[in-house]
Amino acid sequence: MRGLRKASSRTPTLLHLLCAAAIFSLFVFAIQSYFFAGNNRISSKINRLDVQILSHFQSTIQQCVANRGLGLSAHIIDHCNLILKFPEGTNSTWYNAQFKIFEPLEYKYDVCEAILLWEQYRNMTTVLTREYLDARPDGWLDYAPKRIAQLGTDKCYNRTLCEENLNVLLPAKPPFHPRQFRTCAVVGNSGDLLKTEFGKEIDSHDAVIRDNEAPVNEKYAKYVGLKRDFRLVVRGAARNMIPILKGSDDEVLIIKSVTHRDFNAMIKRIPNPVYLFQGIVLRRGAKGTGMKSIELALSMCDIVDIYGFTVDPGYTEWTRYFSTPRKGHNPLQGRAYYQLLECLGVIRIHSPMRAERKQDWSDVPSRETISRAHSAAVRLKKSQAAQESDNLGQFRNCKVWGHSGPYGTGPTSGSSDMSDLRRNSNYSKWETMPFNKLRKEAQDHFNQMEGVSLYKIDGNKLDDLVCVKHSSKSEE
C-alpha cells in the first residue's frame, strides 16, 4: 500500500512538469511568432518605401523623356517597368526577315535592372588584364583561348601558348580606373555629324573615344574635332589602323572582341598602346561598337557625352560621316534605349535637333536621385531573392576573389621580340602611372572600393563578378 501511495503521489508532479513544459513551449512559440511577424512587418515597410522611391524615380524618367525625347513618351507600368512609345505616324522602315515584322513603335524596359547594370559599370574594369586571368579559375585554360583567333585549340593546356599571343596587349593591372577623367566624348560615325559643327565642343573634353576607321583630319575637324585618345576597334578594322593613326601615338587602341597572330605582328610595328576589351559577350556575339564605347567611357569618366549616334527622328539614310549616303532604316530601338540611358544619367546626348536647345540637363535626374533609386533597386532585388543578409555590401556580386600586388606594380604589356619602336610605346604612361598622379576623384573612388577591381565573368549580367583585391601596401 505504501508503495502504491508513493507512485500515485509522483503522478501529479509529472503532470505538472508536462503542463509547465507545454506552457513554456507555447510561450516561446508566441515570442518567436511575434518577432517573426515583426520582422516581416519591418521588411514589408522597407519594401514599400523602396517601391515608393522607385515609383518616384519612374516619374522623373517619364518627365525627362517628355522633355528630351523628341516625340518619345514614357508610359509607367509599375515601379520597375515602363514602355517607351514613338508617336503615331513614325516611319518604321526596318523589316525583320526572321520574324516577318517591321520595327515596332514601342519598347518595354525594366528600369530597376537597367540602373543596376549601368551603375555597376561605373565601377568596372573594361580592359582585359593578367590579374583577371590569374584570378579566374578557368582564366588561362578555358577563357584565354576564346580571346585569341586562329589559335588552333579551344584550351590552353600549355599556358605559354596563350601568353605568347596575349602578352603584347595584356597589362598586369587595370591601366584605366573609374573616374580617371572628368568628361569624355564618345564620337560615333553617323552621317548626322555633318549637320552640326561639334568639333570644338568635342575637343574640349578630357578624353575622346572614337570607333573603328573613323578619320580624324582637317577635312572633318569642324564636325568631329581633332582630339584622339581612345579608339575601340573590331578585328577587321584593326588591320587598317596604321594609315588611320597616321603617326598619332597617343591614341590607345582597344580591340573589341578577339586578337590573332597577324594582328600581334602589326602591333609590334606601331607605338600605340593596344589592349583587349574585357566585356565581350561570349558565344552570343558582342553588342554594337557604339554601345561598347559607352560602356568603356562610363568605366573611366564622370560625364559621358555622345555624338553621332543617330538619335533624331526622321533619319532615313544609314551612313558614316566619311562615306557616301545610302538608304537604310530608322533605328528605333536604338533611339529608345539611348534616350532611356540619358534619363538614367548614364549619357548626355548631342545631336543636330538638340543643338538648338538649351542643354542645361536640369530635367535629367540628379546623382542623388539616381543613387537613392539604385540603393532601392539593390534592396528590392535582394528581398526578391530571399537573401537574409548582405554583409558584402558593394561586393555582393563577387563570386570569385583574387589577390594582387599594389597599384602600379607588375610588368607592362609587351613581349621579348618587340621592335625598338614598340619598346618606346606609351604603355608605361598608363600602366605605371603613380597613384598620386590620378585625379583626386579617382583616388577617392579607389579608396572607397577598398582597392578592389571588379570584372565581369561573361556577358552583360552582373550577378557574377571576378573581384581582385590589391594589397594594402601604401601606393606612392
TrEMBL record:
The keyword Transferase applies. It is a single-pass type II membrane protein. The keyword Transferase applies. Its main location: Golgi. Keywords: Glycoprotein, Glycosyltransferase, Golgi apparatus, Membrane, Signal-anchor, Transferase, Transmembrane, Transmembrane helix. CDD domains: GT29 (cd19952). It comes from the Eukaryota. One of its GO terms (cellular component) is Golgi membrane. One of its GO terms (biological process) is pollen germination. It is found in: Golgi apparatus membrane. GO terms for molecular function: glycosyltransferase activity. Belongs to the glycosyltransferase 29 family. This is Sialyltransferase-like protein 1. The lineage of its organism: Eukaryota, Viridiplantae, Streptophyta, Embryophyta, Tracheophyta.
